[in-house]
Specification:
By secondary structure, the chain is of the alpha+beta class. Helices cover 56% and strands 15% of the residues. It is built from 10 helices and 11 strands.
Length: 439
């Protein structure tokens, strides 16, 4: 039971830290206002309303008793005094019945108090209306073959302090909540900035100097993140420099081997050794590219349509068909995305005769399909081919053009953009590579 209640509360609560904090601050203020309002209306306003209504009905009862006196001169004198001293407007309507429909509000404390006091004094021989006139109450009391019509101000039965109290209790509450919103915004902004910086860094984007701010604990977390970011950046730069050095050191002896092969008289042996050296160079270049492509590159907003069109034009091949939806603009590291798409296209052309590229936009992502009509990949190998240097010892593994890094590099580039890459059966009976990039 408690688990279900806890799950329900988690579902209805806002997910943002700012709104959760605002609820924590605003809820006690609102509850306090409600409690004070209930206490005020119960102990002050309603009691004052009852006392004022009882006093008014007593005055009207006195007037009614005096009106029974047969002396018309005395009646008129009393009526004039009431009109003058009590703000009453009294008249007698002869030969008119009381209205049958009451215009009272059952939810109004003022109407309930007036109805209760009138009933104790006049039973059911009365009628009143508190809604037709804005500041005046109309009261009709049965008398002989007609009724007494009495108009009196609402202030006589409704304390005017209620509106003032409502104003004074509402305005400070709203003011406190507005102040809380300002302070909470200032407190949550550093957390939001830290989260955005971590998200950008996690996607492989270059994060400029990050300035910690906010409370002590938030500053400490931001400082630690900044230190970690700098350490990782230094590590990546050192790796790139080391690989550049290794590349230079390895290419030098490979070049010497090529020169020495040119002097060998046995051409068959020289050709075999030359092929092995070229394969070593190709493997070395692809490995260096795999380790180096993550270097710092500025993120920019660009049209994916133009990127795909420019890539396809470079191939100058009629084997590639392209179908694009509208304007697909996205924030990306341009060179990395180009490298990813070229790897997928090269992979399709290496194993098939035809490649189709389809790009479309959904509510929150851009999806790119790269299909080929090659032999495909067994479903059980979908995860394995994403690993570096993994090659299938079947039809797709017979190609000597690569060393098993194309899909691995493409996978890392897509994931560094916060996207996802998956493999499935192609409509062309080959392999379909599905790339999803967030907008």
């Amino acid at each position: 039971m408690f688990y279900g209640l806890n799950s329900f509360i988690k579902k209805i609560l806002p997910k943002s830290l700012f709104y959760r904090s605002l609820i924590i601050v605003a809820t006690p203020i609102i509850l306090l206002q409600i409690i004070i309002t209930i206490v005020f209306f119960d102990s002050l306003w309603i009691k004052a309303n009852k006392g004022m209504t009882r006093s008014l009905v007593s005055e009207i009862r006195t007037l009614y008793d005096v009106y029974k006196n047969p002396d018309m001169g005395q009646k008129q004198t009393i009526i004039n005094l009431y009109n003058k001293n009590f703000d009453f407007l009294i008249s007698f309507k002869k030969n008119r019945p009381l209205p049958k429909i009451l215009k009272e509000r059952w939810f109004s404390p003022m109407d309930r108090s007036l109805r209760r006091e009138l009933k104790s004094s006049f039973s059911t021989s009365y009628w009143f209306d508190t809604t037709s006139l804005k500041k005046t109450v109309e009261l009709k009391i049965k008398y002989r073959d007609g009724y007494l019509q009495i108009f009196f101000p609402k202030d006589k039965i409704a304390p005017s302090s209620a509106r003032i109290f409502a104003l004074w209790i509402t305005l400070p509450g709203l003011l406190l909540i507005m102040i809380a919103i300002v302070f909470l915004k200032n407190q949550t902004r550093p957390i939001v900035n830290l989260a955005k910086a971590a998200e950008r860094f996690g996607k492989g984007e270059f994060v400029k100097e990050f300035k910690p701010s906010g409370a002590k604990e938030i500053r400490q977390a931001a400082y630690e993140f900044d230190k970690m970011r700098k350490r990782i950046t230094i590590h990546l730069n050192q790796r790139s420099e080391m690989l550049s050095g290794i590349s230079h050191d390895l290419r030098t002896p490979l070049t010497r081997l090529k020169l020495q092969l040119a002097l060998i008289k046995q051409q068959d042996l020289a050709q075999k050794m030359s092929d092995d050296i070229e394969e070593m160079e190709k493997m070395l270049n692809e490995y260096l590219e795999f380790a180096r492509y993550q270097k710092s590159e500025e993120t920019e907003s660009a049209s994916l349509n133009e990127v795909i069109k420019n890539i396809v034009e470079k191939y100058e091949s009629e084997k590639i068909n392209v179908k694009l939806d509208g304007n697909l603009t996205i924030n990306m590291r341009l060179n990395s995305i180009k490298r990813c798409l070229m790897n997928l296209i090269d992979n399709g052309l290496s194993y098939g005769k035809k490649v189709e590229i389809l790009a479309k936009k959904t509510l929150s992502t851009i999806i790119i399909f790269v299909d080929d009509d090659g032999p495909g990949i067994p479903e059980k190998e979908y995860q394995n081919v994403m690993k570096p240097f993994y090659r299938i010892d079947k039809s797709r593994g017979q190609n000597k053009a690569g060393v098993g890094l194309g899909l691995s590099i493409a996978n890392d580039i897509v994931r560094s953009h916060g996207g996802n890459i998956s493999l499935e059966k192609s409509p062309l009976n080959g392999l379909r590579v599905k790339v999803s990039l967030p907008l």
